[in-house]
Design goal:
The protein has 2 domains: 203 residues, no CATH class; 136 residues, no CATH class. Helices cover 50% and strands 6% of the residues. The chain is built from 16 helices and 7 strands. The strands form 3 sheets. The protein has a 3-stranded antiparallel β-sheet with strand order 1-3-2. A two-stranded antiparallel sheet has the order 4-5. The longest helix has 22 residues.
Length: 389
């Protein structure tokens, strides 16, 4: 089935979707409108995910357990790990916390982490879990295809009528994307072909809608677009490590939290504001720590008493880098990071007062927002062993 045209922008807040003869693309463009919770967006994204993985059989039947497990896995990533709010009316995270799900032992960037988490969720799904998903999303997602038929219908009768209309539409020239069977949906062959052909465009459209949805509910949270998926890999910290090893070569460099002297081979870099909050590795948020301390802190927010020492370390490393990098290409890269993150440029980078104020204001503000989002705060290091051993 080929495209009949390039599509058009449908409505003020809608992205253009590819046209296709015989399919109601305008109705499709409305399925994610007026969302009061994340269900519809995540349900649609889950269907696209199953198509991308090639997990849909020739009968195009999709068990609701498959869809629900991907939805709940997405909720774990966005709301559980990154601490974004899904909205006061959204129950996905509550559903997830009630299931006996064991987090995978693998690291987040391991390619099997999400697979193992999803499998654990799927095996823990109960009939009540599926009933919740079915009640809130399966029928309502396709309501734009039957606006006239369901207008004014009592809410209690909408789902039954939509189920009937979707089944009937499969025998018409304007089918709904799927019909609803017991504990499953069946994709219409023309819609399945459309989804396969335009998978990338539709996935980007769904992500765009989810990002807008999350921004409305998390207006102060940074990097929301980076919190829809787990990171496949983390960026290189070669320049950041070189900054701190440069300072280390000039004298004793001590762990921010334990006070232990660090050797270059034992130097780890900690995100003062957790990576799962900032979603970046910019040097202005990094501090030298002992590896055992780094693993102990995890995604917690440090106690306020560490902030002054953190600022002092940042001032020292900047001064060392300016001396060592001789204001060449590496120094310009360092300056670019601090200019973007702290709005500091030129001589202000090595001005103790300017740097202190910028770091204090940025870290304090970030800590306040992260704490409100649910990140554990007030973390302190209490050694159980001698780190020097």
């Amino acid at each position: 089935m080929g495209d009949a045209g390039k599509g058009k922008v449908l409505g003020v807040n809608r992205q253009p979707l590819p046209s296709s003869e015989g399919l109601d693309i305008e109705a499709l463009s409305q399925i994610l409108d007026d969302t009061t919770n994340s269900y519809k967006i995540l349900f649609f994204k889950s269907i696209l995910t199953l198509i991308k993985r090639g997990q849909i059989g020739r009968d195009r039947q999709i068990p609701l357990t498959d869809v629900a497990s991907i939805m709940l896995c997405s909720a774990w990533i966005t709301a559980g790990y990154f601490k974004l709010s899904l909205g006061s009316r959204d129950q996905l995270l509550d559903l997830l916390t009630k299931l006996p799900v064991k987090d995978p032992a693998l690291g987040l960037t391991n390619t099997r982490f999400e697979h193992d988490l999803e499998s654990s969720i799927k095996s823990a799904c109960t009939p009540d879990t599926l009933k919740t998903v079915e009640r809130y999303v399966v029928c309502r997602l396709i309501r734009p295809f039957f606006q006239a038929e369901t207008k004014g219908l009592p809410d209690a009768k909408v789902n039954r009528e939509l189920t009937r209309l979707a089944a009937e539409s499969f025998r018409s020239n304007k089918p709904a994307p799927y019909l609803i069977e017991d504990q499953s949906i069946v994709l219409h062959e023309d819609w399945y072909s459309y989804f396969c052909t335009h998978l990338r465009t539709l996935s980007d459209w769904a992500d765009w809608n989810l990002t807008l949805y999350l921004q409305r509910r998390n207006p102060n949270a940074p990097a929301i677009a980076n919190k829809l998926y787990l990171p496949n890999k983390r960026g290189s910290l070669s320049l950041q490590r070189e900054m701190w090893t440069t300072l280390c070569s000039e004298g004793d460099l001590r762990c921010l939290y334990s006070g232990e002297v660090l050797k270059p081979q034992d130097l780890h870099l900690d995100h003062y504001l957790p990576w799962s909050y900032v979603c970046h590795d910019e040097p202005w948020n990094l501090a030298p720590v002992h590896p055992l301390v780094n693993s102990s802190k995890g995604n917690s927010l440090p106690a306020d008493r560490y902030l002054l020492r953190f600022i002092e370390l940042q001032a020292c490393v900047l001064q060392a880098c300016k001396r060592s990098f001789a204001e060449g290409k590496k120094w310009k890269s360092v300056c670019a990071s601090y200019a973007a993150g702290l709005r500091l440029t030129g001589e202000a980078l090595t001005d103790i007062d300017a740097l202190s104020k910028a770091l204090h204001d940025t870290i304090t503000s970030g800590t306040s927002i992260a704490k409100a989002m649910g990140f554990k705060s007030g973390w302190e290091y209490f050694p159980k062993v001698n780190l020097a051993v």
